[in-house]
Amino acid sequence: MYTTDHLPQANRFPLVMTVVDAVAAGARTHEEVAAAVGGYRKRQGAYYRKAAELLGLVSLESPDHIVLTPAGRRFVAMTPAEKHLHITRQLVRLGLIGKIVDELKAKPQGLTREEIHGLVATLVPGTTPKMIQRRTSTILSWLKYFGLISERQGQVRLTSLPLDFAMWEVESGVQQAVCNHQKSRPQPRLLKGLNAMHKPDPVPTGRDGPSVYVVDAAKVERAECAHERLVRSMALHLLSQNLLPRRNAYIDLYTRSDAEEWLFEMKSCTPQNIHSQVRSGLAQLYEYRYLQRMRPTAHLILVLETQPPPDSAWLVDYLVRDREIAVIWATPDNGFAYPDTCAYMVRGLRL
After folding, report:
1. What domains, with CATH codes, occur in the chain?
2. Around Cβ 277, how many Cβ atoms within 10 Å?
3. In this predicted model, what pLDDT tens digit does every residue of 160-170 receive, in sequence order?
4. Could you say which of 116, 140, 244, 275 has the lowest number of CB atoms within 10 Å?
């Protein structure tokens, strides 16, 4: 169970960040914080301080003396993209707010505000209906601000999730890759009805019953690890360019700027399987752009483990010129290369 202290009262999330910046610059009292966030009264300054405290960024050393926490000190040193990433990660795991996100994950069709009010009422017993409505409105405004939910025709739906930190951590500007295949794969997150649209294929059958496929475990492990290296390398590059990388159980990476958005599909490949891998990536890019209701102008990016061999030049030309899909491949220096013909699609990524 939770208490009302777990229900934020700060409606304007950017002002929560202003509190953190003000404390980093020397503000210590609630009056100083209230002045920093726009001349609010001391009580309202306390609302925004409590919100920053809920996120673990500030704390009270005494009734009217506010300081940065160790996490807060690391936070103020982050780039804007890293800050955005850190906060979205906090929100989806933050106690009561995380419970709401979990419920939205489980209900791809969405929830009404009344259903969310009911959920909060069960989690915070003894709270008045009016307080639940006000505080829930604040929580939803935070989730909307970070693009995690949308609200249409009375239904609140989960629209995206932050980068999957089961793969790596971003702490104090240091990124550490994790490629551990002994861990179980994460369960698919339910986004915009994807679960309903992705039915498992029936097991193939032969004369003597179900067919059995023998998979080379070493090849699977190599492919999966190569895939995660591609995802990680691109995500770290995006962070270095102040672009926020996002990921869910279906989409390898997604990012956007003020003017453009990009959807990435990573493919490990060898000269022997490049054609099949490209065909698979082509279908996935189209499917995911449609199912996630992205704009038709979103750039589709296929990222390959190695440069396509010369006899596959026609395949690259087909993807770029006919399908308008950018083809990128990893280089030995941990960078990325691409043909000049798709430069216009990836210019904003500054590869």
Report:
1. 4-73 (1.10.10.10), 80-158 (1.10.10), 217-349 (3.40.1350.10)
2. 19
3. 666 543 333 33
4. 275
